[in-house]
Amino acid sequence: MPRQCDICQRARAIIRRPKTGQRICKECFFHVFETEVHHTIVDGRLFSPGDRVGIGASGGKDSTVLAYVMKTLNERYSYGLELFLLSVDEGIAGYRDDSLETVKRNKEQYGLPLMIVSYEQLYGWSMDSIVEAVGRKNNCTFCGVFRRQALDRGALMLDLDHIVTGHNADDVAETILMNLLRGDIPRLGRCTEITTAGDGYMGRSKPFKYAYEKEIVMYAYLKRLDYFSTECTYSPNAYRGYARQFLKDLESVRPSAIIDIIHSGEAIKVSEEVQAQKPSSCERCGYISSNAVCKACALLEGLERGIPKLGISRSAKHFERQAVEPVHFERLREKAHEMRRRRMCGDSNPCTTTSCDDSCHGTTCACTTDDDGAGGCH
Amino acid sequence: MASIINTENTANNAKPLLPKLDFSDGSQELIVEFGGGLEALIKQEMLKNVKGAKQTNVKFPKQINKHPATIRDLIIHLRNFYVKEKPELFCTGDKVRPGILVIINEEDWEIVEDNSDKYDYELKNKDHILFISTLHGG
Q1: Across the strands, what pairs with B29?
Q2: Cβ distance A30 to A222 under 8 Å?
Q3: Do A63 and B134 touch (CB under 8 A)?
Q4: CB-hemisphere CA count at 13 Å for A86?
């Protein structure tokens, strides 16, 4: 006997919401899913009208649904955002190259501009060559550190105000568990925040923070969205795998477990002594870092130094790669700022004023010539 | 497709809990689809590509041990004869791995009443059953 929707009481229920236990119909599901994300965005004050927002797009389910929903909400609620797809090509043959094809289709399907930045281009090393050099054991560390920086670099190249990523409720709950299990208390305190500072230049947030993975997959399925689902060819982080399995087992007996863990994580107050040191900048690349040299630069140096030991089988290509010097973040920021100035003024009337100091980050910069003739940025 | 009775010898690595299918009480045709990365676990020769969907037609008995065949029976059968390796990524015992969604005729199988077991769903001829993993990639 078909069950009726718990919300509209009319249509046939087709999904059970893990968060609430409600049985609801397709249209009500789309509506509540999208509306909850909208509330997350509004309550978290993630954006301002006119913001240039990059959607971190991997071609996987989360980012594909995120791109679709961001586009839908931007139109429905007139956020006034300029949306971009921003993808990182880690250089993993048979995995990322295929998933990037999905992103390229999404670009057409959603009519959003796409930018792809690659590890090879940014650092001179693809993940394939890194794995060749360091083996399969710790390669996820490289990938994670490089990806975070790569997204920020791409965002500066596009002069974005904000990056959104497809991290969902399951991911957040998993990260809370991981930080707890590792005793990483500063991160435990930070990981539930919806927006993090990113590079310091632009914000980075998770509109799907409260969206269950199950609902994201159901949404993608029912909307027939085009996404890519293949496991990365390199061994996944085993510790994270256990945390994930544990979480999924909990969810199967008590579906609210995921949102409950997030609420617990949000309620934990980390005492000030254990909070992270004041962030400063990496002395080599200018990226935000709590140490003199950021993690990415330290990893890169290890890679470069390791090369001679790798023996004569290395091709000349590797030595060419050594020549790649990651662009200093200060230069990227300057360029982004310049782009912003030009955009605000229009190319025909370039703003030549120097009165705008960087403190406004261009957000309040109107770059118009005033009646008093002073011109410049306010 | 080949009759499932002939596939006995392909189930080397799994202990069949439901060994040979007995069609004496009639048979039914099911469409079984795998998505979200699960298709990679299935023997490729068993799958066909239907408009991008990886699916297979399964001829299944109407009754198993004189009871109407349920989705529990189907899951065991799929694990024994369709999963090519690492059956634990598909199910443990007769339960699908947490994180795999089961969608029967476009409906989440979890909408069953609270006091009934979703594994007791009685299969019907022409049912479309989709197993979709939520565990892959982001």
Answers
A1: B59
A2: yes
A3: no
A4: 29
- Domains and their CATH numbers in chain B: 23-133 (3.10.20.30)
Pairwise CB contact (< 8 Å): B136 & A230? yes
For the segment A58-116, what is each residue's pLDDT rounded down to a tens digit?
999 999 999 999 999 999 999 999 999 999 999 999 888 889 999 999 999 999 999 99
Q: Which two tokens stand for residue A197?
A: 């500072």
ipTM over 0.95: no
Using an 8 Å CB-CB cutoff, list chain A residues near B37: 229-231
Strand order in the sheet with A203-205: A114-118, A82-89, A52-56, A162-164, A203-205, A195-196
Query: What are the structural domain ranges in chain A?
Result: 26-267
d(C-alpha B135, C-alpha B130), whole Å? 15
Task: Kindly report the average pLDDT of chain A as a whole number.
Answer: 84
CA atoms within 13 A on the CB side of A85: 29
A260 annotated to bind ligand = no
Would the CB atoms of B108 and A15 count as touching at under 8 Å? yes
Which is the CATH superfamily of the domain at A26-267?
HUPs (3.40.50.620)
In which element (H, E) is residue B129 found? Answer: strand B128-133
Each residue's pLDDT tens digit, A153-178? 999 999 999 999 999 999 999 999 99
